[in-house]
């Protein structure tokens, strides 16, 4: 497999560093995680819980559940609230995946963005065939056709119980009346504006967000009007009529690609979630166009294959990090080769998660030696932004939802007149085989750009079931690191029996084949472990990633937590 070493790759790393600084490293103090007193379970009703990336979404989701809404109603309301109060990732101009477990049935709402009709394979290459820096990440050409409103509408049609209008209204109120800006958000916006100015990007982000000051009320009146149209007309309030006209006129004026026809033809899709047996559990996770579900199943199964006949590894020891990094090399080699939009390419899902294949794949992993990156090939023969939330209602229904506009604040372009940020999801396609995107991920034909195709994602909303009951709901933002956050959270929960608080806050790590032998890790990993791994030949990179919001339902008790580093809030009631 070719390894991208272009200037673009270098710039990608610079951008990656700045995104990390923006959200993960520069998030300030912990917002208090609130936990209401636990109540005794009854035969039919259990505790409900929400684990959300900010307090506004948590409070609204709780209100919806308390007025009798189900987990999907709460998730829809939270998604719209986040479009107002979490502009770095919450959205109506992006997309995402919603995993649903309701009345003991599963569903997966794919509301991923897709390439505009006029997009083409080489659209980000210059006349020499080199990737044009930043074009797929900042500015008008970076956006895929948004999927969020269609996704929420489909989720509501299939699973909602409260009226649509009641679910959108809280977001309208927050946009129209304004909300008090958390100091972490104000700081993040300030830094983002400074970075855009430093590189002289001609985008309108500052015009819309410079007024968001710490602890002051911030109103978004254009956005409020757009949300009102969505509230009153549902899906059509975005993809048809006035909003569609505003979007397509703006695109034409700015030489963007998304047209009225693109909007009209966008469809959210209901897919079958991936399901795999792991130990005594059923893993329920994200199918393509997510790469994450296949990846976490591969990771967890190979972990068991390789540790079956030995003593349990110590959590976050050098042996543990090395083993999981070695597995990651193989997982990401398969990702680069085989994964893409299943409506365009045949993804060999069953083969990739088959026990026999993973046993074979594990055979070359040595406990004391790093595999040579260049020799790790696909195994079959033939921003980091984003945000996540988890909800569980008193009936045991659950939603795991990850949503994104890709990097922090997406393309940094606001649709003038409609007041929302557009995604820069086109960067999740492979602009050129072997050339890394902003997350350092490479890809080939399976993930090349085609009109109406969905770009490969790492978003991995997941659940673990036991005997038909949801025992764990998990997910995270973080680009390709999402996959590590998710499988590590499952190991933390079920291999190491941690509380929700520990699951989200214990230091994590990530390895993805490229860059070569680099393990990215959170503060808190034992320095002796770091030195041991460096002596083995790893380059250790201390950069935080992810923002987990999980719910654990174990031994008759519901436990929930939001990662301390972010501005999330979890509530059990
Ligand atoms: N935009 C990040 C992802 O979908 O993987």
UniProtKB/TrEMBL annotation:
GO terms, biological process: glutathione biosynthetic process; glutathione catabolic process
Alphabetized UniProt keyword annotations: Acyltransferase, Glutathione biosynthesis, Hydrolase, Signal, Transferase, Zymogen
Database matches in Pfam families: G_glu_transpept
Pathway as given in its UniProt record: Sulfur metabolism; glutathione metabolism
Protein's UniProt keywords contain Hydrolase: yes
Keyword set includes Nucleus: no
Modifications the protein undergoes after translation, according to the UniProt entry: Cleaved by autocatalysis into a large and a small subunit.
Highest rank taxon of the organism: Bacteria
Reaction(s) catalysed by this chain's protein: an N-terminal (5-L-glutamyl)-[peptide] + an alpha-amino acid = 5-L-glutamyl amino acid + an N-terminal L-alpha-aminoacyl-[peptide]; an S-substituted glutathione + H2O = an S-substituted L-cysteinylglycine + L-glutamate; glutathione + H2O = L-cysteinylglycine + L-glutamate
Active site per the UniProt annotation: 386 (nucleophile)
EC number(s) per entry: 2.3.2.2, 3.4.19.13
Coiled-coil features, chain-numbered ranges: none
InterPro entries associated with the record: GGT_bact (IPR051792), GGT_CS (IPR055262), GGT_lsub (IPR043138), GGT_peptidase (IPR000101), GGT_ssub_C (IPR043137), Ntn_hydrolases_N (IPR029055)
Molecular-function annotations in GO: glutathione hydrolase activity; leukotriene C4 gamma-glutamyl transferase activity
Binding of L-glutamate, residues: 112, 404-406, 428, 457-458, 479
Signal sequence residues: 1-25
Subunit description: This enzyme consists of two polypeptide chains, which are synthesized in precursor form from a single polypeptide.
NCBIfam families (UniProt xref): g_glut_trans
Family membership noted in the UniProt record: Belongs to the gamma-glutamyltransferase family.
PANTHER family attached to this UniProt entry: GLUTATHIONE HYDROLASE, GLUTATHIONE HYDROLASE PROENZYME
Protein name, as recorded: Glutathione hydrolase proenzyme
């Amino acid at each position: 497999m070719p390894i991208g070493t272009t200037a673009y790759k270098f710039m990608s790393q610079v951008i990656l560093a700045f995104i990390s600084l923006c959200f993960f490293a520069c998030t300030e103090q912990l917002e208090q995680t609130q936990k209401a007193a636990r109540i005794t379970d009854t035969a039919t009703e259990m505790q409900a819980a929400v684990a959300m990336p900010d307090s506004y979404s948590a409070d609204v989701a709780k209100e919806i559940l308390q007025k009798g809404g189900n987990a999907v109603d709460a998730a829809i309301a939270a998604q719209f609230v986040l479009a107002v109060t979490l502009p770095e990732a919450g959205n109506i101009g992006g997309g995402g995946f919603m995993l649903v477990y309701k009345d003991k049935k599963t569903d997966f709402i794919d509301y991923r963005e897709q390439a505009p009709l006029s997009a083409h394979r080489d659209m980000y290459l210059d006349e020499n065939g080199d990737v044009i820096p930043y074009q797929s990440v900042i500015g008008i050409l970076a956006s895929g056709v948004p999927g969020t409103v269609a996704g929420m509408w489909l989720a509501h049609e299939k699973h909602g119980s409260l009226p649509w209008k009641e679910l959108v209204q809280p977001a309208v109120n927050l946009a129209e009346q304004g909300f008090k800006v958390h100091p972490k958000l104000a700081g993040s916006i300030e830094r983002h504006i400074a970075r855009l100015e430093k590189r002289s990007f001609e985008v309108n982000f500052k015009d819309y967000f410079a007024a968001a000051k710490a602890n002051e009320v911030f109103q978004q009146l254009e956005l409020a009007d757009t949300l009102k149209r969505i509230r009153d007309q549902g899906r059509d309030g975005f993809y048809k009529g006035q909003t569609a006209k505003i979007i397509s006129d703006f695109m034409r004026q700015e030489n963007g690609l998304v047209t009225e026809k693109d909007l009209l033809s966008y469809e959210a899709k209901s897919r079958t979630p991936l399901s795999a047996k792991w130990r005594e559990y059923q893993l329920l996770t994200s199918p393509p166009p997510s790469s994450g579900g296949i990846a976490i199943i591969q990771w967890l199964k190979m972990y068991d294959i390789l540790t079956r006949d030995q003593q349990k590894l110590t959590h976050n020891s050098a042996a543990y990090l090395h083993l999981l990094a070695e597995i990651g090399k193989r997982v990401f080699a398969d990702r680069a080769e085989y994964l893409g939009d299943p409506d365009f390419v045949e993804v060999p899902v069953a083969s990739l998660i088959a026990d026999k294949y993973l046993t074979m794949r594990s055979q070359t992993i040595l406990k004391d030696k790093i595999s040579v990156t260049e020799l790790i090939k696909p195994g079959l023969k033939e921003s980091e932004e984003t945000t996540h939330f988890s909800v569980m209602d008193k009936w045991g229904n659950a939603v795991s939802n990850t949503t994104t506009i890709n990097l922090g604040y997406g393309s940094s372009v606001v649709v003038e007149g409609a007041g929302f940020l557009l995604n820069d999801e086109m960067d999740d396609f492979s602009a050129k085989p072997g050339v890394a995107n902003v997350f350092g991920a490479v890809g080939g034909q399976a993930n090349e750009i085609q009109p109406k195709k969905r770009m490969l994602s790492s978003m991995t909303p997941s659940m673990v079931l036991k005997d038909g009951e949801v025992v764990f709901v998990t997910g995270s933002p973080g680009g390709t690191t999402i996959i590590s956050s998710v499988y590590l959270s499952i190991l933390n929960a079920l291999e190491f029996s941690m509380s929700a608080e520990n699951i989200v806050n214990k230091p994590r790590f990530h390895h993805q084949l490229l860059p070569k032998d680099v393990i990215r890790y959170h503060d808190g990993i034992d320095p002796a472990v770091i030195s041991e791994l460096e002596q083995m030949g790893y380059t250790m990179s201390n950069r935080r990633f992810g923002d987990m919001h999980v719910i654990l339902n174990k031994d008759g008790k519901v436990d929930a937590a939001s990662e301390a580093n972010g501005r999330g809030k979890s509530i059990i009631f």
